[in-house]
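Open question from group meeting: does this chain pack into something compact, or does most of it stay loose? Before anyone orders reagents, we agreed to write out a predicted structure and look at it together. Recording both the input and the output here so the notebook holds the full record.
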Amino acid sequence: MTLRSAGIHHITAFVGDVQRNVDFYAGILGLRLVKKTINFDAPEVYHLYFGNESGAPGTIITFFPWSMGRKGRIGGGQVGVTTYAVPTGSLDFWEQRLAAYQISVTKVSRISESYLSFADYDGLRIELVEREEGPLSSWSFGGVPVEHAIKGFGGAVLYSTEPAKTADTLSRTLGMEVIAEGDGYLRFRAAGELGNIIDLKAEPVPHGSGGTGTVHHIAWRASDDAEQLAWSRLVQSHGYQPTPVQDRQYFNAIYFREEGGILFEIATDPPGFARDEEPDALGEKLMLPTWYEPHRAAIEANLQPFDIREIGVKSK
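Structure tokens returned:
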């Protein structure tokens, strides 16, 4: 069985205030909250998932919001920048929209592509790029029309403390193809249509520190449980020690840390977010795994309420 990664399944990050997080990703970026649950390892913390209309693999960004969390520092051993793909001809719309919300935007170029670069309220670095490939999103919220809506991930920029070793893992272990080099980056392509362009900073980056405003891990796609087990065997044959399979309710996961310090996950596409909610009601209720249901009242009492709301433009 020849394995080649289809690209990003999801990206998970630490943030601060939950309402500000929801306001940014739903209210401003127009993503759909597809699941409201908890960190299974720390039930006092939400785990929020945002994506397209269904939360399809390749569109999902997830957050652990904790207002008491320490501030992190973006650096080596992390995803440095999360890249979102928007339809061709949409960057002007997004530049005007972000400016209306007084979000500072920089235009940057990398390997013959133009990006809008900015940060969210916690300092996570984000960029938008126009891409032809990948299905359009049908989700519209907060004044973002479907013709300009974020499709999902364009990819990510990886910061490694050992870029040569990270490059080897991306190509030799995950089966990505090197397609370009320039501007201080090495570009890889995975097999899928979304989350398929990975740029690796060519020079070593000093270690970052985890905390609010940093990415915790990046997850790569496995089509099903059988493929995930094949990935686990392959990863192990390349000298890594992947974790046992973890049940994350909406996907199964294994984890390993590559030699440049970045935490990699391999997550299954199924069962998806509609396993415990109807597709038209995703993200409306706090969903708990069965082992936490007896503690629902205490868990809900400990979580800060928030609203999915449209965000008015501030007057200058």
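Observations to bring back to the group:
The radius of gyration is 19 Å.
The chain has five helices and 16 strands.
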